[in-house]
């Protein structure tokens, strides 16, 4: 049962109390019964109704929040703050469902179990499809063995250390390993300096410059450009560049990849999220420059975020000859793998799932590289960041442009 209801300023105070008082993610958590009745009491003050923010038009949510999902007093996410002016819109207000905590626990448990079964079946199907591509042999690509580059971080300027600010020693060492693994691959792709100008390496999605700054330190003759769209992070990058005394060789540009129109000999990216990997590849191939990218968030290209990457799969005579578009999207959507990250490090929670995810990553990266090879004549190869324990997303895709 639903009706339209216009919230008053007094209602907003009650709702704010309600949101702040209830913060329960799952009904199995301790004190859920107490919080359930507390939520119900507060909800009764708004005519016994629970506000369910699903589609709210006409106002913006507080920063770093999303619509509140309220179901019989179990709140997933709360609003940080909301004013009467912001709330001056009609909202759908469903009646409070009289359901016991035990019934809700049983209902939620059933839903979670169903989702687990569905995910397991999708993983199985994705594994079958990925194996079909890998076994076809039409998609074999050269593999470059990971370099054993070793750095004595104590001998380097402190500003280059990507572990600065890490809370846990284990995570600190992994961040170092990720950056060093990428630097080794990038250095092998940078051309020699000529009399006309030094090579330019452009780090897209550079963050505060961990990768690009170390590349510039290892190759002081190279011009490095850090492209980052977040203004706050750009400020951190500029501070690091100044502290390292590299303003003459390192430039920070605050903007998107589409806004950069300067020189580029090698485009790079560490954990380039979703379609950013494909944007880097497109940027480089249109300018006949090389690229070295460690992709991340593979699943995004299978959804709305991947709308700009074009038809999938890209390699019509490669992966496209083995998988349909829908099959490829299934593989891409299961190529992401989450780990449990904490002060004692992380574990790959399900080894069988990880093996399937790795195979799916390989299919997506293979499709990208075959398209570049066949369309633009690039020399392409796969590599990886080692050790594998530093990140589950350790694939590196490399494309070397034809001689200019």
Automatic annotation (TrEMBL):
* One Gene Ontology cellular component: cytoplasm
Q: Which residues form the Methyltransferase domain?
A: 174-302
Spans traversing the lipid bilayer: none
PANTHER family attached here? GLUTATHIONE S-TRANSFERASE C-TERMINAL DOMAIN-CONTAINING PROTEIN, PTHR13369
Designated name of the protein: Methyltransferase domain-containing protein
């Amino acid at each position: 049962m639903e009706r339209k209801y216009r919230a008053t300023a007094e209602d907003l105070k009650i709702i704010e109390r309600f949101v702040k008082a209830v913060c329960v993610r799952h009904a199995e958590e301790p004190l859920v019964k107490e919080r359930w009745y507390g939520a119900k009491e507060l909800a009764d003050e708004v005519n016994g109704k629970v506000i369910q923010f699903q589609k709210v038009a006409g106002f913006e949510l507080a920063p770093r929040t999303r619509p509140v999902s309220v179901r019989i007093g179990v709140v997933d996410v709360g609003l940080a703050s909301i004013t009467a002016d912001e709330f001056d819109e009609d909202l759908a207000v469903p009646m409070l469902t009289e359901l016991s905590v035990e019934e809700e626990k049983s209902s939620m448990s059933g839903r979670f179990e169903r989702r687990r079964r569905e995910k397991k079946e999708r993983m199985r199907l994705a594994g079958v499809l990925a194996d079909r591509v890998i076994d076809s042999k039409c998609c074999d690509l050269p593999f470059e063995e990971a370099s054993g580059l070793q750095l004595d971080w104590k001998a380097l300027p402190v500003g280059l250390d990507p572990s600065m600010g890490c809370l846990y020693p284990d995570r600190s060492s992994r961040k170092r390993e990720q950056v060093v693994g990428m630097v080794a691959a990038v250095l092998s792709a940078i051309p020699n300096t000529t009399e006309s100008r030094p090579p330019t390496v452009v780090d897209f999605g550079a963050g505060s410059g961990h990768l690009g700054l170390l590349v510039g330190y290892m190759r002081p003759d190279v011009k490095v450009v850090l492209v980052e769209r977040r203004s706050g992070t750009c400020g951190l990058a500029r501070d690091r560049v100044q502290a390292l005394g590299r303003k003459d060789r390192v430039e920070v540009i605050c903007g998107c990849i589409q806004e950069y129109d300067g020189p580029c000999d090698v485009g790079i990216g560490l954990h380039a999220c979703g379609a950013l990997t494909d944007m880097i590849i497109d940027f480089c191939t249109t300018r006949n420059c090389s690229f070295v990218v460690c992709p991340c968030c593979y699943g995004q290209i299978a959804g709305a975020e991947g709308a700009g990457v074009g038809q999938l799969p890209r390699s019509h005579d490669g992966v496209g000859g083995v998988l349909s578009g829908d099959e490829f999207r299934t593989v891409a959507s299961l190529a992401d793998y989450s780990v449990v990250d904490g002060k004692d490090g992380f574990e790959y929670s399900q080894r069988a799932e990880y093996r399937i995810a790795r195979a799916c990553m390989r299919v997506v990266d293979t499709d990208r590289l075959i398209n570049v090879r066949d369309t633009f004549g690039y020399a392409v190869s796969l590599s990886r960041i080692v050790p594998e324990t530093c990140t589950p997303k350790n694939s590196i895709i490399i494309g070397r442009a034809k001689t200019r």
